[in-house]
Write a structure and sequence with these properties.
seven-stranded parallel sheet, globular, binds NADP nicotinamide-adenine-dinucleotide phosphate, SDR_fam, KR_dom, NADP
Length: 257
């Protein structure tokens, strides 16, 4: 018996990185997973690589979806419900960075980051909660970040990630009476293409950038998608049904330094 037997989970931005790691974990614990990502071909490829993908009862779904677009979100959520037979878990993971110091940050850099993280989480949650409320059951997990606490060059991203924490607290209050839990995880440095792109922007080789981060971390390593997936699986399981509105920092203690 897996913790997610009989459950359907939608994970946005799950073609790679933390989203894919979380999809692997949820699928390995019995969930049928809808992998949503901008590029449908990548989403399908990742869905086909998940545990249980070749079994008819546990097959998964890969869909193209832009989380910042209401029509795209509503269509994707309806397809998940009709093709996978329901919806029980939503992970708002899709994300982008458009880093720059404030005086060089364009309105487009601001709008696109707020659009994917905050508007995206809002649109996906609004579409999913209809189903959650009707069945009096649902789990929502939002991706925040240690950058919510402030990070040079990330005014847009930091504002979005702290906004996610306020959004999560409010979901906890509004949706708690309907059997729905909403929590957030705030990762520190996780080795993915997102942090590899930051290394490139700073002109550092990826391995050197990861080593610098690991050396500065109390547990002396960087994080991996599996670290976030483990926390996500707990918070989306019924073992965490008395936890809602919370943000769990999964950062090797980086925030404590
Ligand atoms: P990633 O490797 O860059 O993956 C993000 C995925 O989201 C990509 O597949 C991307 O697709 C997709 N995406 C972007 N815009 C989208 C949209 N509008 N609609 C649907 N999908 C979209 O990033 P990651 O490192 O795994 O990060 C995942 C989440 O964790 C993000 O919310 C991020 O902010 C958060 N986080 C990451 C770290 C870290 O250190 N990596 C730390 C704290 C928080 P394309 O490739 O097509 O753009």
């Amino acid at each position: 018996m897996g913790r997610f037997d009989g459950r359907v989970a939608v994970i946005t931005g799950a073609a790679r990185g933390i989203g894919f790691g979380t999809a692997q974990r949820f699928a390995s614990e019995g969930a049928r997973v809808a992998v949503l990502d901008l590029d449908e071909a990548s989403a399908r490829k990742s869905a086909a690589a998940l545990p249980g993908a070749d079994h008819p009862r546990t097959s998964h779904l890969g869909l193209g979806c832009d989380v910042s677009d209401a029509a795209s979100v509503d269509a994707a959520v309806e397809r998940v419900v009709s093709e996978l037979g329901g919806l029980h878990i939503l992970v708002n993971n899709a994300g982008i960075t458009r880093d720059n110091l404030l005086f060089k940050m364009t309105e487009q850099d601001w709008d696109s980051v707020i659009g994917v993280h905050l508007r995206g989480a809002f649109l996906m949650t609004r579409a999913a909660q209809k189903h959650f409320v009707a069945q009096k059951y649902g789990k929502i997990l939002n991706l925040s970040s240690t950058s919510a606490l402030g990070n040079r060059g990330q005014a847009n991203y930091s504002a979005a990630k702290m906004g996610i924490q306020g959004f999560t607290r409010t979901l906890g209050i509004e949706l708690g009476p309907y059997g729905i839990n909403a929590n957030a995880v705030a990762p520190g440095f996780i080795a993915t293409e997102m942090t590899d792109a930051t290394a490139e922007r700073l002109g550092l080789p990826v391995e050197e950038f990861r080593k610098l981060s690991a050396d500065a971390n109390p547990v002396r390593r960087v994080g991996f998608p599996e670290d976030i997936a483990a926390a996500a699986a707990f918070l989306c399981s019924d073992e965490a049904s008395y936890i809602t509105g919370q943000t769990l920092y999964v950062d090797g203690g980086a925030r404590l330094d």
